[in-house]
TrEMBL record, chain A:
<feature type="transmembrane region" description="Helical">
    <location>
        <begin position="12"/>
        <end position="31"/>
    </location>
</feature>
<feature type="transmembrane region" description="Helical">
    <location>
        <begin position="245"/>
        <end position="270"/>
    </location>
</feature>
<dbReference type="InterPro" id="IPR050366">
    <property type="entry name" value="BP-dependent_transpt_permease"/>
</dbReference>
<keyword id="KW-1003">Cell membrane</keyword>
<keyword id="KW-0812">Transmembrane</keyword>
<feature type="transmembrane region" description="Helical">
    <location>
        <begin position="139"/>
        <end position="158"/>
    </location>
</feature>
<keyword id="KW-0472">Membrane</keyword>
TrEMBL record, chain B:
<feature type="transmembrane region" description="Helical">
    <location>
        <begin position="142"/>
        <end position="167"/>
    </location>
</feature>
<dbReference type="InterPro" id="IPR035906">
    <property type="entry name" value="MetI-like_sf"/>
</dbReference>
<feature type="domain" description="ABC transmembrane type-1">
    <location>
        <begin position="140"/>
        <end position="352"/>
    </location>
</feature>
<dbReference type="InterPro" id="IPR000515">
    <property type="entry name" value="MetI-like"/>
</dbReference>
<feature type="transmembrane region" description="Helical">
    <location>
        <begin position="188"/>
        <end position="209"/>
    </location>
</feature>
<keyword id="KW-1133">Transmembrane helix</keyword>
<feature type="transmembrane region" description="Helical">
    <location>
        <begin position="338"/>
        <end position="359"/>
    </location>
</feature>
UniProtKB/TrEMBL annotation, chain C:
<dbReference type="GO" id="GO:0005524">
    <property type="term" value="F:ATP binding"/>
</dbReference>
<protein>
    <submittedName>
        <fullName>ABC transporter ATP-binding protein</fullName>
    </submittedName>
</protein>
<dbReference type="GO" id="GO:0015833">
    <property type="term" value="P:peptide transport"/>
</dbReference>
<dbReference type="InterPro" id="IPR003593">
    <property type="entry name" value="AAA+_ATPase"/>
</dbReference>
<feature type="domain" description="ABC transporter">
    <location>
        <begin position="22"/>
        <end position="277"/>
    </location>
</feature>
<dbReference type="Pfam" id="PF08352">
    <property type="entry name" value="oligo_HPY"/>
</dbReference>
<dbReference type="GO" id="GO:0016887">
    <property type="term" value="F:ATP hydrolysis activity"/>
</dbReference>
Length: 301, 367, 346
């Protein structure tokens, strides 16, 4: 299992990229400060809106702030919201989805109804409005709002999976033997769902990073915090596009896209491991089959 | 269609009685399956009614749960903007929407529902004294046009590409397109919009930089204006499609890979049907079904992303309205936009559900 | 080379018209997945006469399903036919064609009109979103462009009547039919274009015993009526003893014994065949102790150099460990076992 997980190119790429950004979020600001001697907030008046140069590798903003330092600082803000939002969202989807699948009947139906309700609600506009009331609020609150409203998709998947696990013979048998539900959920059902939960977490991570960027772009984020979203928002507000300051808004968006791609690729690879039908169409297998077929054709000719 | 003509065939003539009872059966079957579909739709309709009610109630609860007193803040701001005390009717309207410290929650709720029934969403603070309903009504057609067309286009594009990639999974086409799309679907909408605006609007000057139509024209249903709407709309629409088709494509690709391995596709091939028929009538037709059950989740993301795209292009829709409302804490507009967007999305989901019923004869009670 | 070997005896089991419809020679199928390619079928050789029912029996993993998809050229990556021929002889005396090397276009024209298939699970084999009749109609009209829409629907209803399904069911969707009905419908579907050969992949595993008998009786009746040949794959030897004219026993990707049904029942030559025969109760004899076959089938990725059955064989000899026995003619039948090599008598 482990071997094939890392034998998968997609997963390897995803893990490396995601790991890089996590590391950047953890130690990045220290590196910019002490190694590169740059600061995300210092205004370099000698270089206003300067294109990339030796002194400022990614150029500077309208306010003479170093873009590279901001991107690194922003990694911390974005990844923080991403992780916290994903933790909260995943926790709620486990708390709602698993019992919804495990307990049928009224409890299950009620939880399922709640899930479906949140599923059809357009979550992003909802988050926008709520965050609108809490303007200037910190990143913690933003992550919290994102998590609290973004759990429904995960809960639906978990419900289906928990349902299939708890309908298996061994769980049914243990239920009949009088095993307590709590114990059954924790010792029998949940362990079967770890893979799903992990994939949900990755999905939640990128969802939260994107949502935070969207919120920041709307201008309802913490104005003093630096995240990739606030960078793009600042660029937009200062009409960076219309003045051609591409180095200001291109890097943060690219970072968001990279984190998203990494998470998606890991999920993709895990899907391939879980679903043999997807695995059998991997490029390697198809190439080998084709090579074989050509050998036969030439032999037959 | 042909079944009815078939009943008059030579075989039927010989066994008239049997045939009559068979026709009876058929009618009964059709009625039964029709009833089942009807029951399913009725249940879905019921669900969306409850969801709509929840959205309306959420709209009532949110301002009352927020710290501070939005109602007082709004009145305060309105008085400052207008420079005079508000007329009592306006006061009642605002308190009905955002909270009234003197009434019980229940009384407030009843009053609130009554106001909604009269489409009274309060007055905008920024554009005092324009009613919110009017602002929202002005923006809605633009957003519907933009989001509606882009949703349909990205769905079609994503589904078609997904079938192509999934059908020849592992081919070079798939090996290049699928990771690329994974990347594209991870790119924030508004960033793509900024990039497109910079490249096509600023650098190359192919498209106008902002707005939804040429401001020198009068809004009217005539060729010049429609042409200008198209000219201004292409870039925003293209960026939304660009960001949104990836999700549809990846879903469709994986479903196609799974469906292609189903026995009925194998049998279709064994029957010697043309590859196009096998691919579309058998594989894609079935692989498409989950696209509709996942519609709700996808649509929420597209709408959110489209709202942000509107901001980049200063497109005169709901998103831009929401943006300016958020900037200036125009709570009545915020709430109005939220309510409208939510109800519209719910309606779209109901439509997607109905299409699903029509596409899948096995209308399932529970997924 | 093999046709002569196989056409000698079995007179009782042989139906009218004794010319060959299918001639399989040295067919090899590999799975080219990750790692070393795995051989699922090795050197499969047999001939099928017009109107004959050939049963192929084997445990799961013996390569019988792989063989079916290779015969009909329906296999998907990573399965690849790496060697051999599958010669199909059309009825009208045209040149035989090699299904393995036929161009896709020609193959498509041949499908269903000459060669059709019944899959294991009818539930999965019918398109859930198409009416039953429509799934007949598209096959009928694909191969007969002149057939009108109305005529095709009429034909679909007639075909359903052949297997005892009332004509009005043509308008139903697959999920509205019972399991037995669906299975019978797929058999009717396979006969839509009057093929000369129908390949059946365990078509009775998904239905109950009563329905199983009905379906088998129907297959025999329809075969009498239309004269098509059948390759019938199953893991259930008892079923083949009643249905098939000849039986091929597969083990680890090879045919280990090929003989008439009577011979397989009365005098199985391969120890594996004997094991299979003894592992179900005889229908018309006093109940005796049942003998299973100890052990499990070998791993196809690591086949022993000798006989793959050696580890489970009650009559294993020194030679079996080192030398692979090949399928050799043996008085009108064939067997791949060192016990029956010249000079050795059990």
């Amino acid at each position: 299992m482990k071997y094939s997980l890392f034998g998968n190119g997609k997963v390897t790429f995803g893990v490396v990229v995601l790991g890089f950004f996590v590391l950047l979020a953890l130690v990045g600001p220290w590196i910019t400060g002490s190694v590169l001697g740059l600061d995300a907030r210092t205004n370099d008046i000698s270089a206003i809106s300067a294109p990339p140069s030796a002194e400022h590798p990614l150029g500077t903003t309208q306010f003479g702030q170093d873009v590279l330092a901001q991107v690194i600082e922003g990694a911390r803000g974005s990844m923080f919201v991403g992780f916290l939002g994903a933790i909260i969202g995943t926790a709620i989807s486990v708390l709602i989805g698993v019992p919804a699948g495990y307990f049928g009947g009224t409890t299950g139906n009620l939880l399922n109804f709640l899930t479906n309700l949140f599923l059809v609600m357009p979550v992003l506009p909802l988050i926008f409005v709520i965050a609108g009331y809490l303007q200037g609020t910190g990143l913690v609150m933003i992550a919290f709002i994102i998590g609290v409203f973004g759990w429904a998709g995960g809960a639906r998947t978990l419900r289906a999976q928990a349902m299939s696990v708890s309908n298996r013979d061994f769980v049914q048998a243990m239920r009949m033997l009088g095993e307590s539900n709590t114990r059954l959920i924790f010792s029998e059902v949940l362990p079967h769902l770890y893979g799903w939960i992990a994939s949900m977490f990755l999905g939640g991570l990128i969802g939260a990073v994107m949502a935070e960027a969207g919120l920041a772009f709307l201008g309802v984020s913490d104005s003093s915090a630096i995240s990739w979203g606030t960078m793009i928002q600042a660029a937009q507000q200062q009409s960076a596009v219309l003045r051609g300051l591409w180095w200001w808004f291109v890097p943060p968006g690219l970072c968001i896209a990279l984190v998203g791609t990494a998470a998606a690729l890991i999920n993709f690879g895990v899907d391939e491991l879980a679903n043999p039908k997807l695995r059998s169409v991997s490029r390697r297998v198809v190439k080998r089959t084709a090579a074989h077929r050509i050998a036969v054709a030439s032999e037959g000719a | 269609m042909t079944a009815t003509t078939g009943a008059t065939g030579p075989a039927a003539a010989a066994t008239g009685a049997v045939e009559t009872s068979a026709r009876h059966d058929r009618n009964r079957d059709r009625k039964r399956s029709g009833r089942r579909k009807g029951a399913f739709l009725a249940r879905r309709l019921g669900f969306y009614l409850v969801a709509g009610w929840s959205a309306i109630t959420l709209n009532f609860v949110i301002p009352r749960l927020m710290p501070g007193d939005p109602s007082a803040a709004i009145i305060d701001q309105l008085e400052r903007v207008s420079g005079q005390a508000l007329p009592p009717a306006t006061l009642v309207s605002i308190q009905g929407l955002f909270g009234n410290p003197d009434d019980s929650l229940f009384e407030q709720y009843i009053a609130y529902l009554g106001q909604l029934a009269r489409f009274d969403l309060g007055l905008s603070i920024v554009n005092f004294p324009v009613p919110v309903a009017e602002l929202v009504a002005a923006g809605l057609p633009w957003t519907l046009l933009l989001v509606g067309t882009t949703t349909v286009l990205s769905f079609i594009l994503g589904t078609a590409l997904g079938v192509a990639a999934g059908w020849r999974a592992g081919s070079r086409f798939d090996a290049i397109l699928t990771p690329l799309t994974t990347f594209l679907s991870s790119v924030p909408y508004f960033w793509v919009a900024l990039l497109a605006l910079w490249l096509f609007g600023f650098l190359w000057g192919w498209f106008p930089l902002s707005g939804g139509y040429d401001p020198n024209l009068v809004i009217a249903f005539e060729p010049a204006f429609i042409g200008s709407v198209l000219q201004y709309g292409i870039l925003p629409a293209a960026t939304i499609v660009f960001s949104a088709f990836g999700g549809w494509m990846l879903g469709m690709r994986n479903m196609t890979v799974t469906t292609v391995r189903e026995d009925y596709v194998l049998l279709a091939q064994a029957k010697g049907l043309s590859p196009a028929r096998v691919r579309w009538r058998y594989a894609a037709r079935n692989a498409m079904l989950p696209q509709f059950t996942g519609f709700a989740m996808a649509l929420g993301g597209v709408v959110g992303g489209a709202l942000l795209t509107e901001i980049v292009f200063s497109y005169p829709g709901i998103g831009y309205l929401l943006f300016s409302a958020l900037q200036k804490r125009d709570y009545p507009v915020m709430q109005g936009v939220f309510l409208l967007v939510t109800l519209t999305v719910l309606l779209a989901n109901l439509i997607a559900d109905s299409v699903y019923v029509w596409l899948d004869p096995r209308v399932r009670e529970e997924k | 080379m093999t046709t002569t070997a196989l056409t000698a005896r079995n007179d009782a089991a042989r139906p009218v018209g004794s010319d060959t419809v299918l001639d399989v020679d040295g067919l090899c199928v590999e799975y080219a997945g990750a790692g070393e390619p795995v051989r699922a079928c090795t050197d499969v050789t047999f001939a099928l006469r017009r109107g004959e029912i050939l049963g192929i029996v084997g445990e799961s993993g013996s390569g019988k399903s792989t063989l079916i998809t290779a015969l009909t050229r329906l296999q998907r990556p990573p399965a690849v036919t790496t060697a051999g021929r599958v010669l199909f002889h059309p009825q009208d005396g045209e040149e035989p064609v090699d299904l393995v090397r036929l161009t896709p276009r020609k193959l498509r024209a041949l499908r269903w009109t000459s060669l059709s298939i019944v899959l294991q699970s009818a539930m999965d084999a019918l398109n859930p979103v198409m009416r039953l009749g429509a799934q007949f109609v598209d096959a009928l009209r694909e191969h007969d462009r002149s057939m009108s829409h109305t005529a095709a629907w009429e034909e679909a209803r007639r075909l359903l009547g052949l297997v005892g399904i009332s004509a009005d069911r043509a308008r139903s969707y697959p999920h509205e039919l019972s399991g037995g009905m669906r299975q019978r419908a797929t058999i009717a579907l396979a006969l839509a274009c009057r093929p000369e050969l129908v390949v059946m992949d365990e078509p009775t595993t998904a239905v109950d015993v009563v329905m199983q008998r009905q379906i088998l009786a129907q297959v025999l009746r329809l075969r009498r009526e239309f004269g098509f040949a059948v390759v019938f794959v199953t893991h259930d030897l008892s079923l083949l003893l009643e249905l098939a004219d000849r039986i091929a026993v597969m083990y680890a990707g090879r045919i280990v014994e090929l003989a008439s049904a009577t011979d397989v029942y009365r005098t199985p030559m391969h120890p594996y065949t004997r094991g299979l025969r003894d592992s179900f109760p005889p229908l018309h004899a006093p109940v005796t102790r049942l003998e299973g076959i100890p052990g499990s089938p070998p791993d196809l990725r690591a086949l022993p150099s000798g006989c793959p059955f050696a580890d489970r064989c009650p009559a294993v000899m020194e030679r079996c460990r080192t030398e692979l026995p090949l399928l050799e003619p043996h008085g009108g039948r064939s067997v791949a076992c060192h016990l029956h090599d010249e000079g050795i008598r059990p």
